[in-house]
Amino acid sequence: MFGMPGWIEILIICFVGVLIFGKRLPEVGKNLGKGIVEFKKGLTGIEQDVNNAASQNPPRQVSNDPKPASDEQRLRDAEAKLQEAQHEIEALRNQHKA
Questions:
Q1: Quick check: is 35 in a domain?
Q2: To 5 degrees, how large is the angle CA 83–CA 88–CA 92?
Q3: What tens digit of pLDDT does each residue of 11-49 get?
């Protein structure tokens, strides 16, 4: 039902464009062309920026370190830090009371 416009629809659109823009149609086309050229220049500039950034920052190498700590080890480390923090808080409370 709604696909690409056929030749008749394109001719109608062109006719309406001529009626609306009239004598200014060449100027509108010129400005549209300038806009497309500026858009392409902007895209080229962005591509160059991305390529420059990629060449300046090469991807990091994966280290040959042993396997990272397991989830269980990280959990034990976090629990130990939590207990240390709780002891420090308790010590500060005792100092404050005294």
A1: yes
A2: 145
A3: 998 888 888 888 888 888 899 999 999 999 999 999 988
DSSP, collapsed to helix, strand or coil, labels residue 88 as: helix
pTM of the full structure: 0.40
The residue range of the domain holding 25 is 7-55
Residue with tokens 């420090």: 88
**Number of folded domains that form the chain:** 1
Does residue 62 lie in a domain region?
Answer: no
- In this predicted structure, what is the pLDDT of residue 59? 66
Question: Do 12 and 19 contact (CB within 8 A), yes or no?
Answer: no
Q: How far is Cα 74 from Cα 82, in angstroms, rounded to an integer?
A: 12
